[in-house]
Specification:
This protein is α+β, with helices and mostly antiparallel strands and 380 residues long. 27% of the residues lie in helices and 31% in strands. The strands form three sheets. A seven-stranded mixed beta sheet has the order 1-2-3-4-5-7-6, with helices on both faces. Strands 10-11-12-13-14-16-15 form a seven-stranded mixed beta sheet, with helices on both faces.
């Protein structure tokens, strides 16, 4: 099929909603394909590039995808990749992905782009792989579509970025399987990184009482006041809509809670992450009661104490995003780890992983087993 690729416009919104419904049905969990106001904002956003493929003769929309960025960050997210069922197998997904990366990575606007990819079939994984993305982890139970699904995390970097990673002196032992997998699959090393025992868990609070504020506009305003610098966020490209506050005012945790997809990303903590680390168990329990079957945080690989605190509360190292963030005032890049925890039973029987992704699934299973399965001792 002959198709033309150009930028989406506000006039396309009605057709875009029909396209996403045709591809995903009524369960698509993001506003990009369902909320006209948010779609209009993203189309006009100078930090986001949204492209569509139009049929050569009719001009009808056949495919759509976007790379979403934000002020102060040089990391982008590939999202909303959809090809109408009538136009699959025509190479449109790959054409859109490559054009987006050429305009955002090839021109130097971004240092890297990541994508979360479904694992119900190998097709989506192969589309991003053919366009320069490489697997960096797997996120079990990450989203609820028609049922609970695991996602794969892929990333693509601008030329030279991976060569400027900042060495990390030590990491907790449970991260070792993930680091070894990254070394084998991406060809990058951790020669100066020691594997050491996790630090003792922070002392739990005597009585942790949390208040939950779900007022998105208020949460956004307060978040911008607390964190004017995006470098202080756990997770870029996630605007918090939920605020958890200790009843004594000792800390605040900002989170993005998606009730449709039943997942949550921890975005930032005030005054600092260490203050909230001892409250991770009540924080996670509160979010689970609010409907989040999956909770994740993106943490610097260099933060041994913070990683230890998450490990102590049952979070599993699920993915490693190398060279994700530039060094403040420097020329290097910091590695980050996705720490995830699911409150629901993991069932990998429906997961389809392409060969390059399989080692990450194996690494996750190894880390999960060491966390949740008892060590059996044989009596002499």
């Amino acid at each position: 099929m002959t198709a033309t690729i150009d930028r989406a416009t506000p006039a396309d919104i009605a057709d875009l909603r029909q396209l996403y419904y045709a591809v995903y049905g009524p369960h698509y969990p993001t506003a990009l394909g369902t909320d006209p106001a948010e779609m209009s904002r993203l189309i006009e956003d100078p930090h986001t590039l949204w492209l569509v493929a139009r049929c050569g003769r009719s001009g009808n929309l056949a495919a759509s995808a976007a790379i979403h960025g934000e002020p102060g960050s040089r990391t982008g997210r590939l999202e909303g990749l959809a090809v109408h069922p009538d136009h699959r197998a025509g190479g449109l997904a790959g054409a859109l992905t490559e054009e987006l990366c050429a305009r955002m990575l090839g021109t130097g606007r971004l240092d890297s782009v990541y994508a979360t990819v479904r694992t119900v079939s190998a097709g989506p994984q192969r589309v991003v792989s053919r366009n320069g993305f490489r697997p960096v982890g797997i996120l079990p139970n990450a989203v609820d579509l028609s049922n609970r699904e695991s996602l794969a995390l892929y990333a693509r970097h601008s030329a030279g970025v991976l060569d400027r990673r900042i060495p990390v002196p030590e990491v907790p032992t449970p991260l070792a399987p993930l680091l070894r997998t990254v070394e084998r699959t991406l060809g990058i090393g951790f020669p100066d990184t020691r594997v050491t025992a996790p630090l003792p868990a922070p002392r739990p609070p005597a009585a942790a009482r949390l208040e939950t504020v779900e007022a998105p506009a208020f949460v956004r305003r307060r978040f911008r006041e607390r964190f004017p610098d995006a470098a202080q966020w756990f997770y870029p490209l996630h605007t918090p809509n939920t605020l958890l506050v200790a009843d004594d005012g000792g800390f605040e945790v900002y989170a993005y809670l998606n009730r449709t997809g039943r997942y949550c990303a921890l975005v930032a903590a005030h005054p600092d992450p260490a203050t909230a680390a001892a409250y991770l168990e009540p924080i996670t329990r509160t979010l689970t009661r609010a409907g989040a079957g999956y909770v994740e945080a993106l943490l610097p690989l260099s933060e041994h104490g913070l990683l230890s605190a998450f490990l102590a509360q049952g979070f599993i190292p699920s993915a490693l995003y190398p060279a994700m963030r530039p060094e403040a005032g420097g020329d290097g890049f910091h590695d980050y780890v996705v720490m995830s925890r699911t409150a629901e039973q993991i069932d990998f029987r429906g997961v389809v992983v392409d060969e390059p992704l399989q080692p990450y699934l194996d690494a996750y299973v190894s880390a999960w087993a060491s966390t949740y399965l008892p060590t059996l001792e044989v009596a002499p």
